[in-house]
Design goal:
Layout (H helix, E strand, L loop, with lengths): L5 E7 L5 H9 L2 E8 L2 E9 H7 L7 E5 L4 E11 L6 E8 L5 E11 L6 E4 L3 E7 L7 E4 L8 E3 L10 E2 L6 E6 L4 H31 L1
Parallel strand pairs: 1-4, 2-6, 7-10
Antiparallel strand pairs: 1-3, 2-3, 4-5, 5-6, 7-9, 8-13, 9-12, 11-13
């Protein structure tokens, strides 16, 4: 269970806009906003490196102090990252309280390997309701005994204590597909090459007709 609180000290943000955000990031800070439970949104800056490390864990429970004040528990609601460099652009945090139930997306993790076949994941995460201070880090699925044609549904999962899945028990999670033979793979590649050649030929014909006109 990911019940450990990660303590981070933030500071109030008094400047806004893209220019202010760029200056904050240049100073090693991450612009963020924290809200929830009827309180007004509070705009803050968080230490960039500490926050980046904390958010490597899904649904990290943060204990945030603002300007040295009282601690507030919060969960990441939305995390914006630079698509190229990967650093944090902005973080939305939602206030939570001890004992409060929240619904979060928890990663599904495959354990072991199948003897034959290919594991096809239909879902990468599962929505679980859990206490805000006791959110599971992941749900493990052991595939070592599964055979080709078998499936795992939500009802087959062993959920961590205190977690509840509110969806349908027959929701497909994963299945074991038959391995692709070399002959089938070659045929698929040849078909793809043939389609590409036909498309290129059609484009050339169309271009020639355009030039003739």
């Amino acid at each position: 269970m990911s019940s450990n609180e990660i303590k981070i000290a933030g500071t109030s943000r008094t400047e806004f806009g893209k220019g202010a955000a760029r200056r904050a990031r240049r100073d090693g800070l991450v612009p963020a906003v924290i809200y929830g439970h009827g309180s007004e949104p509070v705009h803050i800056n968080l230490p960039g490196h500490e926050t980046l490390l904390a958010l490597r864990t899904a649904n990290a429970l943060l204990s945030i102090t603002i300007d040295g004040g009282k601690q507030q528990l919060a969960l990441p609601k939305q995390v914006q990252r630079d698509p190229i460099k990967g650093f944090l652009d902005h973080v939305d945090l939602i206030v939570v309280r001890k004992g409060e139930k929240v619904t979060v997306e928890v990663p599904l993790v495959i354990i072991g390997e199948v003897k034959e076949g290919i594991v096809t994941m239909d879902q990468q995460t599962i929505a679980l309701e859990a206490e805000a201070t006791n959110i599971p880090a992941q749900v493990e699925i052991d595939v070592t005994t599964l055979e080709v044609g078998q499936q795992i549904t939500a009802g087959d999962l062993t959920l961590p204590e205190g977690s509840v899945f509110s969806g349908e028990a027959d929701d497909l999670i994963l299945s074991i597909a038959a391995p692709i033979s070399e002959e089938a793979l070659e045929a698929s590649l040849e078909a793809g090459e043939g389609d590409a050649a036909a498309a290129a030929s059609a484009e050339e014909d169309a271009a020639a007709e355009g030039d003739a006109e």
